[in-house]
Specification:
- With 297 residues, the protein is of the alpha/beta class.
- It has one domain: UDP-N-acetylmuramoyl-L-alanine:D-glutamate ligase (3-Layer(aba) Sandwich).
- 37% of the residues lie in helices and 19% in strands.
- A ten-stranded mixed β-sheet has the order 3-2-1-4-5-6-7-8-9-10, sandwiched between helices.
- A hairpin with a 2-residue loop joins strand 8 and strand 9.
- Helix 1 runs parallel beside helix 7, helix 2 runs parallel beside helix 3 and helix 7 crosses helix 8.
- Bound molecules: 3-hydroxy-5-(hydroxymethyl)-2-methylisonicotinaldehyde (PXL).
- 3-hydroxy-5-(hydroxymethyl)-2-methylisonicotinaldehyde binds next to strand 1, strand 2 and helix 7.
């Protein structure tokens, strides 16, 4: 009897999805953190690989505890993946320790052609602090110069710019001056989000080497959402991995995030959780722009 072995190299599989490597912390509610990254990246058709930087104990009302993962373990997790598969984009979220920042900085410096989307998570939306002065200093010195797109909210842009200005002795005067300072510090682009401002609409502004590139105005949604920043940064990372130019990726990611928030649900007693898979339930196309919700300014 003869046996035939299948030649899987000839199997009619579609091309594999691009890989996004996420460095972020576990949020058991799956509202923010790694779980938000994985849901977002997978929802947009990429493969989410995940290096956990810290564990948290939290519910939808707040964070009770954070356990940073040993820096060596973070590096080992990432090196094992990077030696095995091609990574299209790095996405950085909550990092948890100076050792984590230093180890990740060294890893990404070995892949200078891979874009880096960095969401500089310093605190939760509910005010729980995730980064002390030393972590901030390490982020500014080691990660900003390697960042393709930084996605701070207004609180984060102020703290990062303050850290920088303390280094060179000058204080920033406005949010846009702070964003420009971060570009000067080495970020190729800064997407400053306006969720925390008390404006009627949410205005997100993209800055590059030559100043403001674009601003997008969104209808402000009524709820308080857990993980909106993680969703936005992960969505930009996914769109970049799919080959979209940066400014287009930024717009598509805002649209996707707005739709996820609009479809969000309240499972616990605290914040709403975005529905990154809104299109599964509604039959919507995650890529179709919502003409009602966005206005470029
Ligand atoms: O939304 C920022 C964020 C990122 N990562 C983790 C978080 C939070 C907010 O709570 O818990 C793990």
């Amino acid at each position: 009897m003869t046996t035939q072995s299948a030649d899987i190299s000839q199997a009619p599989f579609a091309a594999p999805p691009p890989v996004v490597l996420c460095f972020s912390a576990s949020d058991p509610t799956a509202g923010a953190g790694m779980q938000a990254d994985v849901l977002t990246v997978a929802s947009l058709g990429c493969h989410p690989t995940s290096v956990i930087t810290a564990l948290t104990v939290q519910d939808t009302m707040g964070v009770e505890a954070v356990l940073p993962i040993d820096g060596g373990w973070i590096v080992d997790q990432a090196r094992a993946l990077l030696e095995d598969m091609p990574v299209a984009v790095f996405k950085l979220g909550m990092l948890g320790s100076v050792e984590a920042v230093a180890g990740i900085a060294e890893i990404i410096s070995d892949y200078p052609d891979v874009p880096v989307v960095f969401d500089p998570v310093l605190a939760s939306g509910r005010g729980d602090q995730f980064a002390d002065e030393e972590i901030l200093e390490a982020m500014v010195g080691l990660l900003l110069p390697q960042t393709t797109l930084l996605t701070p909210n207004s609180l984060e842009v102020r703290r990062l710019a303050q850290e920088l200005s303390e280094l060179d002795g000058e204080g920033p005067v406005s949010l846009s001056a702070a964003a420009r300072l971060l570009v000067e510090a080495g970020c190729e682009y800064v997407l400053l989000t306006g969720t925390h401002e008390s404006t009627e609409h949410v205005i997100n502004s993209l800055y590059g080497k030559h100043g403001k590139v674009r601003a997008d105005t969104w209808d402000r949604l009524p709820g308080s959402y857990h993980g909106s920043g993680c969703t936005l940064a992960a969505a930009v990372a996914a769109y970049l991995a799919l080959g979209m130019p940066l400014a287009e990726a930024v717009v598509a990611a805002q649209d996707y995030t707005w739709r996820s928030l609009a479809a969000g649900f309240r499972l616990g007693m605290g914040q709403f959780i975005p529905d990154r898979l809104f299109w599964v339930r509604s039959g919507d196309d995650p890529e179709a722009a919502d003409e009602e919700a966005v206005h470029e300014t």
